[in-house]
Amino acid sequence: MTPPPAETNDDAAERITGLVGDAIRRATERRLLAQIVREPVPKHLAIIMDGNRRFAEERGLNVREGHERGKDRLEELLNWCLEVGIRILTVYALSTENLNRPKSEVDSLMELFERSFREIATDERVHRHRIRVRAIGKRSVLPERVRAAIDVAEAATRDYDQYFYNVAIAYGGRDEIVEAIRSLAREVASGRLAPEAIDAATVSRHLYTADLPDPDLVFRTSGEERISNFLLWQSAYSELYFSDVLWPGLTELDFLRAIRAYQTRRRRFGA
Length: 271
Prior knowledge:
The protein has a 6-stranded parallel sheet with strand order 3-4-2-1-5-6, with helices on both faces. It starts with 8 loop residues before the first helix and ends in an 8-residue tail after the last helix. It has a domain at about 40-175 and about 215-265: Undecaprenyl pyrophosphate synthetase, CATH 3.40.1180.10. Helix 6 links the parallel strand 3 and strand 4. It is of the alpha/beta class. It is built from 9 helices and 6 strands, in the order H-E-H-H-E-H-H-E-H-E-H-H-E-E-H.
């Protein structure tokens, strides 16, 4: 049996550098977490999970593997939110524009969504923390198997009210507002609503997020600095935070830095 090659000086230096880096990162995470838990955290965090495909390309992976890595990161994000006490999480999983991607990619995404919704229906964390799971978006354009999986997840968590986990799938902010306008128009036409009675609160009650507060923080990964048709109405006064890290590469330290940055800002709400 051939013995393993001896560790070179360069190998040893690289290993030690990695260990030191990990120790520094863990210490920084502990310090930030201690600061964060002493101050109010966002009640509602919205995340634009961008960068799966670029992450895969940079690492020589196929697109499907990039999306799988993104799913794994979302699993960790849920734990991080529970740890700091964020009670409402809304994630941008699939835009209406994303449906125009190559069929093979869309098909693999639908398989991933179907599996994810069915898994979360039996997730021990969901039931222990009483997390209500919902999908927001244009469900009619999704395959029946995905709609069925969403129904399973929503039914399993319908009575929960401690935490809220919203998945924006086949979602577009403009589409959401248009649907709200149509609903309001039907109420006016039927005589149930006077045009003069329509105000911002009325519009909010006709959105997908009608029973939820607007997001306090909208966080986007991948270096892009735009909100890309996500929660257009709801994010009018949200704090925005952009990170260069690609979504599957997000670390807990990146997440904690975003929350800490939010805590250091003074929210003005237009004042």
